[in-house]
Each structure stands twice: as structure tokens, then as C-alpha cells.
Amino acid sequence: MIALRVIVYTINAMKKQSWIEKDVIFVTGFRKKVASTGLTGGSIRSFRRQIYKYYKTVGRDDLTWRNTNDPYHILVSEIMLQQTQVERVKRKYAEFIAAFPTLKHLADAPLSKVMKVWQGMGYNRRALMLKRAAECVIKEHGGELPNDIETLRTLPGIGAATACEIASFAFDQPTVFIETNIRTVFIHFFFDESTAVHDKEIMPLIERTLDRKDPRHWYYALMDYGVMLKAVYPNPSRRSVHYKKQSAFHGSDRKIRGGVIRVLTARERTTIRSLVKELEAPEYRVKKNVEKLVKEGLVKQQKNSFCIA
To answer: Which CATH number characterizes residue 124's domain?
Structure first.
């Protein structure tokens, strides 16, 4: 089994190397053509062929959530993928779906159980919002995840981009959205010499090149091509005006809040004094972050102790 995995890995690495060379050749000619004639129908078709060829050759078909049409499972994956690396999501997604296989299972589960399964994902507020969204769907939408963008946006924790992603991936609707890998592709192909590229410059290009007959796989293809570009070139997304380097986790308030949740999922309740000792953090910072968690609804206070809400 290990030998087979090594062989598969080697073959995929060789395919990717071949595609790096193909990208250099293609993008050079593509940029020249667009510069001289504009973005014509022929250029759009050529662009799509390039993206789809890579996807069909080296696409990430091992991502479980890409092999389901269950809207709830796709919702879970989209929330998990926010600000989290794919490899971490791959490990946690199956565990979460096994624990909460349907919207009703998630809506009915105690928050403490949800947070315990979520441990290791980070950004714990997402788990709370996901549970609240499930509760909302059960109570207000007959247990069926809405398929229109505006209704999806009314669910807790779902913004404009996530609503569009769910509509495209779960319901195959030709929505227009942008995320980091898609941004990378369009900056690479259309903004070679530009810096401080704004998303409002990219969005019309995403709309014009969108494969409206198969938006789900088109967006998957774009994302995979973006992953390849980031591995090969200095991250093109750094030329976006929206690019922000994530702040250090070590010593941050985010780490303290994560530590608080970790402690509270391991025991029924605890005190500020115990948290200070366990997290090895100043009392004033522990207090500040616990208060924030209480305000967000993740933690509740009972006299002098705290527990998962």
C-alpha cells in the first residue's frame, strides 16, 4: 500500500511539473492575445480549455465533499474551508459528518458535543454559527437547506461569498464569487504587471469567463489551478489590495480563546484561576477573552465558573 502511494505521488508530481511548463507557454501567448484583441469569445474558450485540462489531469478528486450532492455536507465543507487549510479539513470533515450526519442531528446536538468534535479546526465561532444555521433551517425552512442566495445569506454565519459558493456547489447555480485561489488565477492571467489589484476589477472577468453550464466543476477547476500557481510562483494573490498576512498564532488572543474552548470541552466547567494556570497566560488576558467568548455565545458563566454554552 505504501509503495503504491509513493508511485501515485511520483506520477502526480511529474504531471504537475509538466503542467508548470505548459502554463508558462500558454499564459505568455494568452496575455499577448488579450492585450492586442481584448477578451474575445475565442480567448475565453481557450482560457477555459487550459483550466479544465489541468483539472482533468491533476485535479483534487480526493476531496470527499466534491463527491457528494448533499447540500448539508457541502455547507459543512464550505464553513470548514474558511481560513483553514484543505489538509486539516480533510481530516476533520469525515469525523464531523459521522458525528452529525444530517442537519437535524447537528441542530439537536448539545453545543458542548459540537465543540468537542470541532476541536483542532480553530476559529471556533464557525462551529457555533454552523449549529445555529442548522437550527434555523430546521425551524424555518422545513429541514431543507435553501437554494437561493438571498435566503442562504439570512442564515447565521453565511455571508455573500459563502452563499454563492453553496449555491454553485450544492445546487449548480452559476453564481459569481471570488476566493483566494480563484483570485490567484485571474491575477496570474489578466494582471501580469499590476499591483494592488482590487476584486472589483476581477469580478467582471469571473462573470465573463464563467462556465454557466457547469459552474460547480468550473470553480473546482479554477481553485485547483490556483493551488498549483501558488506552489510555483511567488503567490500572485500578494498583488491583491485585499491580501493580508495572517497574524502570528503564538501568544495571540486567538490562541487563548482556543485554549479556553479546549479546556472546557475536556471538563464540565472551570474557573478563571484554573484557566490562568493551565494556559500560562496573564489573568487580565484570560478574563478578556473569556468575556468575549461569553458575549459570542460559545461560553456561559455560572456564578464563578464557566462552561460551554
So the answer is: 1.10.340.30
